[in-house]
Design goal:
single chain; alpha+beta; nine-stranded mixed beta sheet; six-stranded antiparallel beta sheet; 15 strands
């Protein structure tokens, strides 16, 4: 899929959460664009229970958001370390960024003046962290490039470091840092090993406990899965790296039962799509699985299980749009995004949301 033809004006970036934009609003105060194929309609997110039907299933990601950005120093130079993913050997995949002086942790990737050649670092680079911790870059995460590195941390456990000294990763289009609670969804569950998502599974952010209760009362079911998202590429819109995921037995059975009936399986967010599709066999049957997934859902690969998707509005160049096209088709995405720009919908993690239905 090439980039979408639409241009998203800068003023359509959601700079603060909806509950901070207008007194009296809750998280569910965002707008909801609905695409039934290429037919588009406009709603408030609170209308979602009326847009789904009894027997439908929402697949939700329970991964908590981490305070994954930590200040550090390389020599005398200030850096920001983004903790992306914990490896099986105890190392962490990290990204180093140069602070931009405005309090944002989404400045440009490190350059030669601080840590050497490449966009992410140099093997052996040592970073001093708060609380006496030390980080050493060891090797690039992928042959694709040097943005993310496997690093070893000593002096403190990383979950403790993040709790004591971390803050949520935020993009430069937002106005200010926010407390971690702003980035947690109603479905987030703490992981026993302290792992989680470097960036919020934001499609679920508009859900409130009240709205979930209303959906359940109308016969809509929920299937929890887990996928810990890593640090996305702000500049080049890379496809996702391998990520940890888990689809429990109870959720696998529920998904298969709904597919055998007349309900629809609707994923809440691209992370939920990746988890479910990673657990689906060629026969379309979902089986309990846990581990790492390197699956990239594209129109060529298609989807085997997911029939609908609730998602945020992505940049026209984002690799996530390939997944949206796999679920709904290119024509539906083109039509929906054109309607979103005309309708002045707000983009990004604090913005409005898009429901794609067959």
């Amino acid at each position: 899929m090439s980039s979408l033809a639409v241009r998203v004006p800068e003023e359509l970036s959601a700079r603060v959460p909806v509950e901070q934009r207008e007194p009296g609003l809750d998280r569910d105060g965002v707008r909801l664009l609905v695409s039934h194929g290429t037919e588009v309609s406009h709603h408030a997110f609170g209308e979602l229970p009326g847009l789904l039907r009894a027997g439908d299933l929402l697949v939700v990601n329970t991964s908590p958001t981490l305070a994954a950005a930590v200040d550090g120093r390389v020599g005398h130079a200030r850096v920001v370390v983004h903790f992306s993913t914990r490896g099986d050997d105890g190392r962490w995949a990290v990204e180093l960024r140069e602070p931009d002086g405005r309090g944002t942790t989404r400045a440009r990737a490190m350059g030669m003046g601080v840590v050497g050649r490449g966009c992410g670092g140099l093997a052996g680079t040592k970073v001093r962290l708060p609380g006496g911790a030390r980080l050493v870059l060891e090797e690039p995460l992928s042959a694709r490039g040097e943005r993310l590195w496997w690093a070893r941390v000593s002096g403190v456990a990383v979950p403790e470091l993040l709790r004591e000294h971390g803050r949520p990763i935020r993009y430069s289009y937002t106005d200010r840092d926010q407390p971690l609670s702003v980035y947690q969804t109603v479905f987030a569950l703490p992981a026993a090993d302290g792992t989680g998502s470097a960036e919020m599974p934001s499609a679920a952010r508009p859900f409130t406990a009240r709205l979930v209760a209303e959906l359940v009362s109308r016969g809509v079911q929920f299937a929890p899965v887990t996928l810990h998202t890593g640090v996305a590429s702000a500049e080049s819109h890379e496809p996702p790296y391998p990520e940890r995921f888990a689809v429990p037995e109870a959720s696998a059975r529920l998904i298969n039962a709904v597919r055998a009936g007349d309900g629809r399986v609707v994923a809440v967010g691209t992370t939920a799509v990746r988890a479910v599709e990673s657990a689906a066999g060629a026969d379309g049957v979902v089986r309990a699985r846990a581990g790492w997934t390197d699956l990239v859902v594209t129109p060529e690969r298609g989807v085997r299980v997911v029939e609908g998707l609730l998602t945020g509005l992505h940049e026209p160049e984002a690799s996530h749009l390939l997944m949206l096209e796999a679920v709904a088709g290119r024509a539906a995405i083109d039509r929906g995004y054109e309607a979103a720009v005309r309708g002045r919908y707000l983009w990004h993690e604090f913005g409005d949301v898009h429901l794609l239905l067959p």
